[in-house]
């Protein structure tokens, strides 16, 4: 017994594998994609708008595939699913380097997105819910922080690679490298359920030691079914919340343009983006920790409060460089909540019984925001010559998000009273 207590619970090895997988696939491939846009646009002689349409195609593909992704994870061996997914994502990314027409990006955006949904959106939250009975918020925060950390390391190196080897070779190198790194990690560290290793989830083993008759699988999977969840007001409140909070975080793409529009130079804009990434890294860890300590609902309210402070500083005191930098750091802190609070709120409201299917459908809000928010912000600036109205809209969305969370938890109470949450 004493030897078993000294061993590291396999849940932490699963988290280690997820951190590497997310770091490479999300922090590497997804985040580094923007570095290729300018050289590709110039080399192929196409407009930036025409090229970046592939990002909209990717968001649409994600929206279509998300409802099926959770079911696929529950039906097939998770390792096979993730191997196929990283082959699709990394392979499509590598194939970009062989394309000579913008249509290549439009077509390859579909397998790229399908693979990315499972590797970077669903696998992490689903597996953490399976493996961590306690500290699941911290585990999710660590995973998302790893994504930011890997991104901060990988992106400068990808930039150097593009400058030295060209965008074609760089696409191929990054895509193949992602596959080579992620494949053994999935095989060695990823398992769908503790039952596959003859274990109980982390944090549950102590509780179960005194009750050997209790059914472990039943304890793991409490909550509502996906069919019940999708008919509830709580589900649509959560879906709309995910849409709004993603739309809020999408303003990050306009931080540098906003800074320059009010008189700051490019160097300052680059520096504050570094502050933003630091805020994302810290926020991922803090939100996971706070959720474990005071619950997803209160943590979300805290996040929205910090978000309002950030936006108000950007609206009313943007001319002060120090205040501007602090505001952007706080905005990065809040933006990290997209990757942490969404999954944690889903678990808190609907449980883990059919988490993958529920979150997979609710995450349609993420895809819809990706399709609509970015062009909307650009059109507002084109029409007004200012990002001020965008920031007012962001503040309004934060306030509405608070209301939606209140509605979602009221909906959970109704499900419990109706005996559908068990």
For the structure shown, list the relevant keywords.
single chain, 422 residues, mainly alpha, 81% helix
Main β sheet profile: none
The helix-and-strand class reads mainly alpha
State the share of residues found in helices, binned by percent: over 70%
Number of helices: 19
Kindly state the number of beta strands.
Answer: 0
Q: Can you tell me the overall shape? A: globular
Estimate the mean pLDDT confidence: 82
Radius of gyration: 21 Å
Helix and strand element order? HHHHHHHHHHHHHHHHHHH
- Ends apart, CA distance between termini: 33 Å
Q: Which residues form runs of ≥5 with pLDDT under 50?
A: 208-219
Q: Strand content of the residues, in percent?
A: under 5%
Any chance you could write out the topology, listing elements then pairs?
Layout: H1 2-6, H2 10-32, H3 37-44, H4 48-75, H5 78-96, H6 102-131, H7 136-165, H8 167-189, H9 205-208, H10 216-220, H11 226-229, H12 233-249, H13 255-261, H14 266-316, H15 321-335, H16 337-350, H17 355-362, H18 364-384, H19 388-417
